[in-house]
């Protein structure tokens, strides 16, 4: 019987044992801080754990691929080659020109599993999106959560269905022509089940969310490899098409070659080997064009980044809300839409300092910026998780959708937005430790008490009812009003794809006018008009698509996409 090889990096340990059932096997030091053991008859499905020094505690594998009993239980051997993929003909989906749809597996359906999510993929195809962005699926403690408290990054959360179920989801997406972007979190680990520091110098410092990784100190070579190998595994073994990198501004790395640059280089190399595009999208709070600047020009070489400034400017224009960081964006719609960054070496009242750096519109394409009206952060981090349509009418939402989907940027929708879903999306967790659960509950209430919210107004994040409230009600699509919103979103996406001028990413050819509440996007021979004012406006040119009832005049809270009259006509 062939022996199976187990390895683990534990450079500071004097002794490492491999625990399989009731039996412990001594592991041998093999150099570089690595330990190795060969055990016969331990193929796929074998549960195992590690014991360090003379501590009999069983710890899961830091590189675990499967945690069927949760993040505190044993790891299970998983064989990637055994999965019956059917996507051999998949050639990928490039980011330029694409529309992204962000979803959370646990609240996308009532069952909260990959298998049930597959049943709704045809809805996304009908809508016209190209890439499905899935919030983190890495293993975290508890059944329900956003996924950003993961502690075993290579293991797929078992309540969603585990690794095979995620592969079925990706395979089903590819069968329908949909690419998959996975949200990954490399800037911190969650508060429960983060055992990495027991194995070696994985941690260095803290973020506001939890311990951060050692990316530039002693022993950091293997820690960086841990991150990069994880990313390559999602691409190679799970066939995902892109990674959204959470809060990269919280990655502390003072090396000459930043982790992001190293990751981009390896991703590009793997893309060449696999023969399909692989995309890295950063979430960054820095407003720094360096993230997406090519490596040859001194940048990190990432393919895109989230652009919160565009979201903030659209949110203020649509809602009039100017509390907190929205204060800077009152009247900033034109400047922000044209330049992606509003804060570009300019004063930020929220930060109480200057912030950001301008980008060069002549060389930076708009598709490098992922923009949205709503996303998990901008909804879920509000006190009660309210969507835009809790504040504005569906008609006004469609004005925002027209500006978003006809912009030179890469648009992203948040699940349910396309039919003006009435369900909120609230912050929730389900830590089994009662002390940790109480800390999350009181911390959430304390945070919003500073903004005038009473404790009773804040949803209890560890109450299962909060998850239920946040779960989509697919039956709303049968309602004529919701269906009308969906049909308009679908028509806008189709129009974007039918007219190259509407997806043209060249920012130096894009101008915006804002006058008396009328917003006009100049898109080559086309004009996109959204009337956010209080008076009707004229509609110049031939209407290609408009809100219901619009003809020669544009009432308030309506939009139109028109073919501009030629010169002299």
UniProtKB/TrEMBL annotation:
<dbReference type="Pfam" id="PF02922">
    <property type="entry name" value="CBM_48"/>
</dbReference>
<feature type="site" description="Transition state stabilizer">
    <location>
        <position position="377"/>
    </location>
</feature>
<dbReference type="InterPro" id="IPR044901">
    <property type="entry name" value="Trehalose_TreZ_E-set_sf"/>
</dbReference>
<feature type="binding site">
    <location>
        <begin position="308"/>
        <end position="312"/>
    </location>
    <ligand>
        <name>substrate</name>
    </ligand>
</feature>
<feature type="domain" description="Glycosyl hydrolase family 13 catalytic">
    <location>
        <begin position="102"/>
        <end position="496"/>
    </location>
</feature>
<dbReference type="InterPro" id="IPR017853">
    <property type="entry name" value="GH"/>
</dbReference>
<feature type="region of interest" description="Disordered">
    <location>
        <begin position="56"/>
        <end position="75"/>
    </location>
</feature>
<keyword id="KW-0326">Glycosidase</keyword>
<dbReference type="GO" id="GO:0005737">
    <property type="term" value="C:cytoplasm"/>
</dbReference>
<protein>
    <recommendedName>
        <fullName>Malto-oligosyltrehalose trehalohydrolase</fullName>
        <ecNumber>3.2.1.141</ecNumber>
    </recommendedName>
</protein>
<dbReference type="Pfam" id="PF00128">
    <property type="entry name" value="Alpha-amylase"/>
</dbReference>
<feature type="active site" description="Proton donor">
    <location>
        <position position="283"/>
    </location>
</feature>
<dbReference type="InterPro" id="IPR012768">
    <property type="entry name" value="Trehalose_TreZ"/>
</dbReference>
<keyword id="KW-0963">Cytoplasm</keyword>
<dbReference type="InterPro" id="IPR006047">
    <property type="entry name" value="GH13_cat_dom"/>
</dbReference>
<comment type="pathway">
    <text>Glycan biosynthesis; trehalose biosynthesis.</text>
</comment>
<feature type="active site" description="Nucleophile">
    <location>
        <position position="246"/>
    </location>
</feature>
<keyword id="KW-0119">Carbohydrate metabolism</keyword>
<dbReference type="GO" id="GO:0005992">
    <property type="term" value="P:trehalose biosynthetic process"/>
</dbReference>
<feature type="binding site">
    <location>
        <begin position="376"/>
        <end position="381"/>
    </location>
    <ligand>
        <name>substrate</name>
    </ligand>
</feature>
<dbReference type="InterPro" id="IPR013783">
    <property type="entry name" value="Ig-like_fold"/>
</dbReference>
<keyword id="KW-0378">Hydrolase</keyword>
<feature type="binding site">
    <location>
        <begin position="244"/>
        <end position="249"/>
    </location>
    <ligand>
        <name>substrate</name>
    </ligand>
</feature>
<comment type="similarity">
    <text>Belongs to the glycosyl hydrolase 13 family.</text>
</comment>
<dbReference type="InterPro" id="IPR014756">
    <property type="entry name" value="Ig_E-set"/>
</dbReference>
<dbReference type="InterPro" id="IPR004193">
    <property type="entry name" value="Glyco_hydro_13_N"/>
</dbReference>
<dbReference type="GO" id="GO:0033942">
    <property type="term" value="F:4-alpha-D-(1-&gt;4)-alpha-D-glucanotrehalose trehalohydrolase activity"/>
</dbReference>
């Amino acid at each position: 019987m062939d022996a199976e090889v187990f390895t683990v990096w534990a450079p500071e340990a004097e002794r490492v044992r491999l625990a399989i059932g009731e039996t412990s096997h001594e592991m041998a030091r093999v150099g570089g801080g690595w330990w190795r053991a060969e055990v016969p008859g331990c193929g796929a499905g074998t549960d195992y754990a590690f014991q360090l020094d003379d501590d009999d505690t069983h710890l899961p594998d830091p590189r675990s691929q499967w945690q069927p009993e949760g993040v505190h239980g044993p790891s299970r051997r998983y064989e990637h080659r055994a999965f019956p993929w059917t996507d051999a003909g998949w050639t990928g989906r490039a980011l330029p020109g694409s529309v992204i749809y962000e979803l959370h597996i646990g609240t996308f359906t009532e069952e909260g599993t990959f298998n049930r999510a597959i049943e709704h993929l045809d809805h996304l195809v009908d809508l016209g999106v190209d890439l499905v962005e899935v919030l983190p699926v890495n293993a975290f403690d508890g059944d329900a959560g956003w996924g950003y408290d993961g502690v075993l990054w290579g293991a797929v959360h078992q309540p969603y269905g585990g690794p095979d179920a995620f592969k079925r989801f990706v395979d089903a997406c590819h069968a329908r022509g949909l690419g998959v972007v996975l949200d990954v979190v490399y800037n911190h680990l969650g508060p429960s089940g983060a055992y990495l520091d027991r194995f070696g110098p994985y941690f260095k410092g803290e973020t506001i969310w939890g311990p951060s990784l050692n990316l530039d100190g002693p022993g950091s070579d293997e820690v960086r490899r841990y991150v990069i190998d994880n990313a390559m595994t999602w691409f190679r073994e799970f066939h995902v098409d892109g990674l959204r990198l959470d809060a990269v501004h919280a990655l502390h790395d003072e090396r000459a070659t930043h982790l992001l640059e190293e990751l981009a280089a390896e991703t590009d190399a793997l893309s060449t080997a696999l023969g399909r595009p692989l995309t890295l999208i950063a979430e960054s709070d820095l407003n720094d064009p360096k993230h997406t600047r090519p490596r040859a020009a001194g940048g990190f070489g990432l393919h895109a980044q989230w652009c919160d400034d565009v979201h903030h400017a659209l949110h203020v224009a649509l809602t009039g809300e100017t509390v907190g960081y929205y204060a800077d964006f009152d009247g900033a719609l034109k400047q922000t839409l044209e330049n992606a960054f509003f804060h570009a070496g300019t004063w930020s009242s929220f930060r109480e300092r200057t912030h950001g750096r301008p980008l060069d519109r002549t060389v930076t394409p708009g598709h490098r910026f992922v923009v949205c009206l709503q996303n998990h952060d901008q909804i879920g981090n509000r006190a009660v998780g309210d969507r835009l349509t809790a504040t504005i009418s569906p008609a006004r939402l469609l004005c925002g959708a027209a500006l978003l989907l006809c912009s030179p940027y890469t648009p992203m929708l948040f699940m349910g937005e396309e039919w003006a879903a009435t369900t909120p999306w609230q912050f929730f967790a389900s830590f089994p430790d009662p002390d940790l659960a109480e800390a999350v509950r009181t911390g959430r209430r304390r945070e919003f008490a500073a903004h005038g919210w009473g404790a009773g107004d804040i949803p209890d994040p560890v109450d299962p009812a909060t998850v239920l409230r946040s779960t989509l009600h697919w039956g709303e699509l049968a309602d004529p009003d919701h269906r009308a919103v969906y049909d308009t979103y679908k028509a806008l996406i189709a129009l974007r794809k039918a007219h190259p001028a509407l997806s043209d990413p060249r920012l130096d050819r894009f101008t915006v006018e804002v006058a008396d509440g009328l917003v006009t996007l100049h898109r080559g021979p086309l004009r996109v008009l959204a009337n956010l004012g209080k008076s009707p406006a004229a509609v110049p040119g031939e209407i290609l698509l408009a809100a219901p009832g619009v003809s020669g005049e544009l009432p308030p809270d309506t939009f139109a996409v028109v073919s501009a009259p030629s010169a002299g006509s």
